[in-house]
Design brief:
This protein is mainly alpha-helical and 165 residues long. The protein has helices spanning 34-38, 58-65, 72-75, 90-100, 111-115, 128-135, 139-143, 145-154, 156-163; strands at residues 21-24, 31-33, 52-55, 108-109, 124-125. Bound molecules: zinc ion (4 copies).
C-alpha cells in the first residue's frame, strides 16, 4: 500500500497519489497531495486557515517507523481540527481538546478516524471531544486513576455523562 487508493487531490486532480496526503478537517472530503499542499494551494472551498491532517500510507509508515515497536495508531501525529495545532498523539489530542475546546460546537472531521487505515475518512462530528472520548479512548487511560481524576476535575458534567451511558 504505497498509494492513497481511491483518493484524488482536490486541487490538481491526481488520483491514487503517492507520498503524504493532507486532508482538510473542515471541508468535507477534501484532500491535497503533498505538492499542492506545499505550494499553498487553495480553492474557493478551502483556505490556508483550515486545519489539515497529514496522512501516511502504510508503506511510508513502515519506512519511517520500521523496526520500532510502535503501532500504526500510536505513530501517527494528529492535528487539532479546531485550532490547527499539530503533532499530538491520540491521548495528547484528547487532553488538548478537553482543555481548549470543550465547549466548541463547530462541526469538524475527526483526524483520528481519517488517519487510521480502516477508519471513516470523513467522520463529521459536532461534539468532537465526546467522539474522541467514546471512540478513541486509549484503554490504558481507564486503568489510570490520576488521569481519570484529572478529567473529572476538568469537566465533571461531561465525565458524568460518559460514565453512565
Ligand atoms: Zn495535487
Ligand atoms: Zn478546507
Ligand atoms: Zn486546538
Ligand atoms: Zn474519530
Amino acid at each position: 500500500m504505497s498509494r492513497h487508493e481511491g483518493v484524488s487531490c482536490d486541487v490538481c486532480g491526481k488520483g491514487n497519489f503517492r507520498g503524504k496526503r493532507y486532508k482538510c478537517l473542515v471541508c468535507y472530503d477534501y484532500d491535497l497531495c503533498a505538492a499542492c499542499y506545499d505550494g499553498g494551494a487553495t480553492t474557493n472551498r478551502h483556505s490556508l486557515e483550515h486545519p489539515v491532517q497529514c496522512i501516511l500510507t502504510r508503506s511510508e509508515y513502515e519506512l519511517y517507523y520500521g523496526g520500532e515497536a510502535v503501532s500504526f495508531e500510536h505513530a501517527m501525529s494528529y492535528t487539532c481540527p479546531y485550532c490547527g495545532s499539530m503533532g499530538f498523539s491520540e491521548s495528547q489530542l484528547q487532553d488538548h481538546v478537553n482543555v481548549e475546546h470543550a465547549d466548541s460546537s463547530i462541526e469538524v472531521i475527526c483526524p483520528v478516524c481519517a488517519a487510521l487505515p480502516h477508519g471513516d475518512p470523513n467522520h463529521l462530528t459536532e461534539d468532537f471531544p465526546a467522539h474522541l472520548a467514546l471512540e478513541h479512548r486509549a484503554g490504558r487511560d481507564l486503568d489510570d486513576p490520576s488521569i481519570r481524576h484529572m478529567r473529572h476535575m476538568l469537566h465533571p458534567g461531561r465525565w458524568y455523562v460518559y460514565m453512565h451511558i
